[in-house]
């Protein structure tokens, strides 16, 4: 049943995404989670508290968040599965935790902005999907930022939530998104979040360990059906360069995409005024542009079809 729900959730989100009108009226499940994380952080992450105490508060707040998500989604899932065709509703609900359409659309906007100009429009477009400073980025830097975000979020926004949906149903995908949202909001190595966000960052690393590596495999497999892409280079680059990344997981999809398309990703960038000289992923060109974003999006779209077809076939196989 989880496979069928996952297959339908992929189709619904791929075709429709999350309606803007619905977001304006009630928001989004991830935004609800984010508001709770923000409220807890404002209340318990006080600068006057000792380092260890702030770390304890962060762990307790994360546990509180996960218990609440579990307590809400498990009864909903059980109730829906007791109804005739209630699993259809569960699939629609689960689709809201996937981001395949939104991610592709956001990166495509960066490509369009680079093609149409001026550069300030592209800087603005990419600022909505990356955490780094974008006001001084040139075209190759904007293109690399968009492609890196596309690669990493293929794991965080599509593959990982889908995997937890297949294994644990609606509660699984909701719990994963709660963990991932907490990490994106408070799991930073800044003075403010180093202690309080420690638990969120560690749990997110664990939750994404398998999905990140699976995403690299999927990029390599998808490269088989993309003209000019290399499946062997995708996997070879991932196994060689992923460990260079500061994150134990983010390097896998980034390096796989770099190898598949012969890109050079990673390298220096600025986050909130702090300069970071990060390792490079891949040996290919670094003077990337709008056309290269299009190539990355093409590889991404092929990966989505691989996911949809494999999930659908698996659902049929286990139903027989």
Strand order of the largest sheet: 1-2
Poorly predicted regions: none
Number of strands: 2
Task: Please bin the fraction of helical residues.
Answer: over 70%
| Oligomeric description of these chains | single chain
DSSP helical segment count: 13
Percentage of residues in DSSP E strands: under 5%
Pfam family, one: CobD_Cbib
Family: Belongs to the CobD/CbiB family.
GO molecular function: ABC-type vitamin B12 transporter activity; threonine-phosphate decarboxylase activity
Pathway: Cofactor biosynthesis; adenosylcobalamin biosynthesis
Index terms:
single chain; 320 residues; mainly alpha; two-stranded antiparallel sheet; membrane; cell membrane; transmembrane helix; Cobalamin_biosynth_CobD/CbiB; Cobalamin biosynthesis protein CobD
3D architecture notes:
This protein is mostly helical and 320 residues long. The protein has one domain. Helix content is 72%, strand content 5%. The protein has 13 helices and two strands. It has a two-stranded antiparallel ribbon. It is globular. It comes from Pelagibacterium lentulum. GO terms for molecular function: ABC-type vitamin B12 transporter activity; threonine-phosphate decarboxylase activity.
Gist of the model:
With 320 residues, the protein is mainly α. It has helices spanning 2-16, 20-26, 29-44, 51-81, 86-95, 100-116, 119-127, 139-186, 198-207, 209-223, 231-241, 251-261, 290-319, and strands spanning 265-271, 274-281. The chain is built from 13 helices and two strands; from the N terminus they run H-H-H-H-H-H-H-H-H-H-H-H-E-E-H.
